[in-house]
Amino acid sequence: MYGQGKMERNATRTNLTLIKLLGRIGRLAHKHLPFPVKGVLGVVQGLYGYYRHGQISHAAWCQLLESHCASNGRFTEHLKRVIAVSRPQRRPAPVSGLLGTFSVAEQRKIVDVLERDGFYRFDALMPADLCDQIERFAQRAPAEPDTPVGDITSLVIYDPGNPGARVFKIPERFSIAEAGVQRLMADEVFVAVAEMYLKSLPAIGGVDIWWSARYGNEPASSAAQLFHFDFDAPPAWLKLFVYMTDVGPDNGPHVYVKGSHRANLISARAFRARGYTRIDDKEIIAAFGRDALMSITGPRGTVFMADTRGFHKGTLPTAGHRLIAQLLYCSPVFNEHGVARPISEIVEPALETSLGKMPRVYDRFR
Ligand SMILES: O=C(O)CCC(=O)C(=O)O
Q1: 72-95 tens-digit pLDDT
Q2: What share of the chain is helix, strand, coil (3-state, %, to 5)?
Q3: Domain that holds residue 128
């Protein structure tokens, strides 16, 4: 027994030394090494973090981000092909879900649009009963405001009459226990589209539901109301968005810059080189043209998917609020929000079925 304890202590010491060494190399790399080397070190540190702790370290994630920015997205594009090998794509097949049945040819058409434009809006709407279910849940769920509401810095119930902040995000631990949200998570169509787009079996890497309130006179960075790109789960991901309330021009529609997701895009180079910052509307219009700004309005139940490597933002609601649900489909390895979040109870039979059929999609929730 004594011998085993000693071995464990030695192994822990070796691990700590390794972590320290990687940290030191990382800091050195940060200052002196060219971006491809920084990127590769980020990958190695990221893999270590994922397999050792179930989560990439923030430092490794920053190195991947730097390489993405310095290479105008090319580093990430190459990494996408490499990382796809760890979760091979299944053979495409027709799938059914909340929006109906989609043949392989229909899925291909959606993916062609995603590859060209960076986003795709579905023709069908989500069933009204699902929107009802999720809206009722969001009306009573504690949510995190983007700025303190009065003196309150903790969770609050969103009050549409007197919001006090711009955005109210429902913590994922509450959302994933909700039947309507579990129905969304169970949907095989969105998994299949993401899989064909990413050329790899995705995992659901995050579930976000939030209110965008009519509050304040200026768009705010804290509410993602200025143009930016995401880097949630490098090297590749696709986000599903569902409007749970009607969204007209005054309810804070999502705006996506068509085609801006592509790597090595000349118009994106200067913005990406700035790093993870917010960008002024005027600059985006000057670079991509006004016609590239796609403001997505639609009735409740409107569904779209977007590669948010492209530039996008939510707008500031000026007349009425917006409730939106978002699911992130990605490779789990470098997901910055990757920490495991087991679902306390499966209340939706469709999720039970999907878990049985494609367990790896739910790696983070088991
Ligand atoms: O509120 C919105 O529509 C923008 C959301 C956003 O920026 C994001 O999901 O990354």
Answers
A1: 999 999 999 988 998 999 999 999
A2: 45, 20, 35
A3: 95-365
